[in-house]
Write a structure and sequence with these properties.
The complex is a heterodimer of chains A (528) and B (91). Among the domains of chain A are: 158 residues, ANL, N-terminal domain (Rossmann fold); 93 residues, ANL, C-terminal domain (GMP Synthetase, Chain A, domain 3). In chain A, helix 10 packs across helix 11. In chain A, strand 13, helix 11 and strand 14 form a beta-alpha-beta unit. Chain A is α/β, with parallel strands linked by helices and 528 residues long. Chain A contains 16 helices and 29 strands. With 91 residues, chain B is mostly helical. Chain B has one domain: Non-ribosomal Peptide Synthetase Peptidyl Carrier Protein, Chain A (Orthogonal Bundle), CATH 1.10.1200. In chain B, helix 1 packs across helix 4. Chain B is globular and about 40 Å long. Chain B starts with 5 loop residues before the first helix and ends with a helix. Classes of the chains: A alpha/beta (528), B mainly alpha (91). At the A-B interface, helix 9, helix 10 and helix 16 of A face helix 1, helix 2 and helix 3 of B.
Chain lengths: 528, 91
């Protein structure tokens, strides 16, 4: 049955009114308080809303109670939310606000220094809500075309009316980096998110005594898991400050977390910094990783540090709503099931279907590699105001009569009941003198040889038919390249042996902290 | 092993930040002042700071227990470089 995304929160707010719902900025908000504050935002948006306007509200807030209040307030007003972050370059934030067409925005105090700049390009009139600011005189004088409402001006929670839920009501609009450099807005419907949540809370048996991490910024869709999985069942989400994020081990202990969710990189660094000592985190009963390939070595080290924990590797693009396949780590079986040292992405969620296709979009035989296509209840609405890009990525493959989303990820179609294994991105496959080369394979051999987890291979130099060879970027201390070369030369055909190894303390990453292969290619173009 | 001075740590930090910013195609600051907060200035993000800590260990060839340094201080150039130099001088 379809239901609104806010329904789970409202149920918990009744049932667990005096339990903590969120901990942020050293403050804890009870369900009752979070509901009250969110309803005030929602009622204010409702009072100023015009049905003809875009049903979206921007939330310009970073790791504060206002960020959570803004998200819930938008939803309770019947709007989807558009997360904006003061940690992004302001030009990017301007583009996101403009492209979204939002006519209302919730701002926290910490984001105010960027507000003037943001309003320079903002559509007007804009309804600007700042629950934790008392005096807005300066802004009101500076920007007469916009409508500023601060704490005391907000409507009462009692005046809030539950909005009508429509089948395609948007939950959030999230911008991902587009290959052209212009961010694409992925519109995710509430029904996509509730399909995801229903499976997750059941599978993980979340209860009101759970304490979940919020490592992900709200501009990353994995944050939706943290908030809404907690609120579905009356649990509490712990949002570390930017400074606390750099001490993840202390954060787990101090907050007595029971559920951990982060990118694998966090585990990789914790291992290197000696933060994964045996049995260090006994409170964790569930450890989840998503967002990039999970090295099997990191998974094993994490489980030693969190011995009471079940560990799962999740996979999913924003377009398929947070995560849509998963794999439970089993120390006896998983090392053998891992391919190229990377933990499998496992099996599709029950409401999602998998199709693995070749270059002509025809299904490959079991055991063969191909591009992963998926569809099902979590398939999002597509790209905001961009029918051309939507049609290209959400399409009907030949011989099928349903729309699938093209993930751009390379996987192996499982034989029998084997898990899906992730082999890299489609664009990580290059042609070198006519040979098809999976850069992930080169990376895996170099990882083994140098003992560093951060390894990215890039095709270089460009030729008419593809590339003339491979170069490798390694995150870590410079070690003898001749030794590395002689180690991988035994494992790889000659055309795959890297010509050069580049050592960097930090590899270029995109806004979501994933390695940015294009940026590395650019470094090579510029002569490094 | 020769003593590592706070200045040597500062040189490393400057190089690290410069490389990282260059990799992202961003402008590189001429120097890092003692009160520069690497996190709040946007030079590194929180994951980047974890990377920086592992890079410091790798560069100076020693494990350092960063937990002893307060999170508020850890991201600021002055306290960070003095802490690292002090730790390296001890062990």
């Amino acid at each position: 049955m379809q239901r609104a995304l806010w329904s789970g929160f409202l149920r918990s707010a009744e049932k667990f009114a005096d339990r903590p719902a969120v901990f942020a900025e050293s403050k804890s908000l009870k369900y009752r308080e979070l509901r009250e504050a969110s309803c005030r935002i929602a009622a204010t948006i409702q009072a100023h809303s015009d049905p003809a306007k875009t049903p979206l509200t921007a939330v310009f807030a970073y790791r504060t109670p206002t960020a959570f209040i803004g998200v819930l307030g938008s939803l309770l007003a019947g709007n989807g939310y558009v997360p904006l972050s003061r940690t992004f370059p302001i030009e990017r934030t301007q583009t996101m606000l403009e492209r979204s067409g939002c006519r209302s925005i919730v701002v926290d105090e910490g984001s105010l220094p960027q507000l003037n700049k943001l309003l320079e390009t903002a559509p007007s009139p804009l309804l600007v809500l700042t629950p934790d600011v008392l005096d807005f005189t300066y802004y009101k004088q500076q920007w007469p075309q916009h409508n500023f409402l601060s704490g005391p001006d907000l409507k009462s929670a009692q005046s809030w009316r539950e909005p009508a839920f429509e089948i395609d009501s948007i939950a959030y609009l999230l911008f991902t980096s587009g290959s052209t450099g212009i961010p694409k807005g992925v519109a995710v419907a509430q029904r996509n998110v509730t399909a995801f949540l229903d499976y997750m809370v059941e599978r993980y048996d979340i209860t009101e005594s759970d304490r979940l991490s919020q490592m992900f910024d709200m501009t990353f869709d994995l944050s939706v898991f943290d908030m809404f999985v907690a609120w579905e069942r009356g649990a509490c989400v712990f949002c570390p400050s930017q400074k606390t994020l750099i001490k993840p081990g202390k954060f787990i202990k101090d907050s007595e977390l029971t559920v951990w969710f982060s990118v694998p990189s966090t585990a990789v660094f914790m291992k290197q910094l000696g933060m994964l000592k045996p049995a260090q985190y006994p409170s964790l009963r569930l450890s989840l990783f998503c967002g990039e390939p999970l090295p099997a070595s990191s998974a094993a080290a994490w489980l030693e540090a969190a011995p009471n924990s079940t560990l799962e590797n999740l996979y999913g693009p924003t377009e398929l709503t947070i995560a849509c396949t998963l794999y439970r780590w089993d120390p006896s079986r998983s090392p053998a099931e891992s391919e190229l040292g990377i933990v499998p992405i496992g099996y599709p969620y029950p409401n999602m279907a998998v199709l693995v296709v070749d270059d002509n979009l025809l299904e490959v035989s079991p055991g063969q590699e191909g591009e992963l296509l998926m569809n099902g209840a979590q398939m999002s609405l597509g790209y905001w105001k961009d029918p051309a890009k939507t049609a290209a990525a959400f399409m009907v493959p030949p011989g099928k009569n349903e729309i699938y989303y093209r993930t751009g990820d390379r996987v192996r179609r499982p034989l029998g009941n084997a898990p899906l294994t992730h082999l890299g991105r489609i664009d990580s496959q290059v042609k070198i003198f006519g040979h098809r080369v999976e850069l992930g394979e080169v990376e895996s051999k170099v990882r083994d040889a140098c003992g560093c987890d951060g390894v990215v291979a890039v095709g270089w130099p460009k030729t008419d038919s593809g590339f003339g060879g491979v170069e490798v970027f390694i995150e870590g201390r410079e070690s003898a390249p001749e030794k590395l070369r002689s180690a991988v030369i035994k494992e790889l055909p000659e055309y795959m042996v890297p010509h050069r190894f580049h050592f960097m303390d930090r590899l270029p990453r995109n806004a979501n902290n994933k390695y940015d292969r294009k940026a590395m290619q650019k470094l090579l173009e510029e002569g490094l | 092993m020769n003593a590592v001075t706070p200045d040597a740590v500062q040189d490393f930090l400057r190089e690290y930040v410069a490389k990282s910013l260059r990799g992202q195609g961003r402008e590189v600051p001429a120097d890092l002042s003692d009160d520069c907060d690497l996190l709040l200035s946007g030079y590194v993000d929180s994951l980047g700071l974890l990377e920086l800590m592992t890079a410091i260990q790798d560069h100076f060839g020693r494990e350092i227990d960063f937990d002893e340094l307060d999170a508020e201080q850890m991201t600021i150039v002055g306290p960070l470089k003095r802490f690292v130099a002090e730790k390296l001088a001890k062990a």
